[in-house]
Amino acid sequence: MSLPPMDDDRDFEHSPLSGSFSRGGETVDVEIYRDAGTQDPWQLVVVDLSSGRPTAWAQTFATDQEAYAAFTAMVEADGMAPFTGVAPPLRH
Questions:
Q1: Among positive and negative, which fits the CA dihedral 37, 47, 81, 18?
Q2: In what ranges is there compositional bias, type Acidic residues (predicted)?
Q3: Residue 7 placed within a domain
Q4: How would you class 72 by CB atoms within 10 Å of its CB: exposed for 0-12, middle for 13-18, buried for 19 or more?
Q5: DSSP secondary structure code for residue 61 in this structure
Q6: What is the total count of domains within the chain?
Q7: Inside any domain, residue 5
Q8: Residue 67's Cα: distance from chain center in Å?
Q9: Whether the Cβ atoms of residue 42 and residue 34 lie closer than 8 Å to each other
């Protein structure tokens, strides 16, 4: 998984909730991570697999479950377009 540019000497702990997520033919990588060996808050980045474009949350999360819930809430509200830039087809 790719992460935003950071210090090369830092190690990260990835949540087991991280991984690929697909809906409507679009797939993204959900990356939930924090500094390894710490109790730091979790960070959330979603990467569009077709373009490599990351979408990072400005806020951090107390648990990895809260981070994943924030991601899924956005998908339920707005679909995959905020991450992929692909608008869903119009329904008449």
A1: negative
A2: 1-10
A3: no
A4: middle
A5: B
A6: 1
A7: no
A8: 8
A9: yes
Which class for 74: exposed (0-12), middle (13-18), buried (19 or more C-beta within 10 A)? middle
φ, ψ of residue 8 in degrees (nearest 5): -70, -20
Check residue 63 and report its DSSP letter.
S
Q: Specify if 92 maps to a domain.
A: no
What's the pTM value of the predicted model, to 2 decimals? Answer: 0.82
Is there a domain that residue 47 lies in? yes
Cα distances (angstroms) measured from residue 63 to each of 1, 5, 41, 79, 87: 20, 23, 7, 23, 30
The enclosing H or E element of 77 equals: helix 64-78
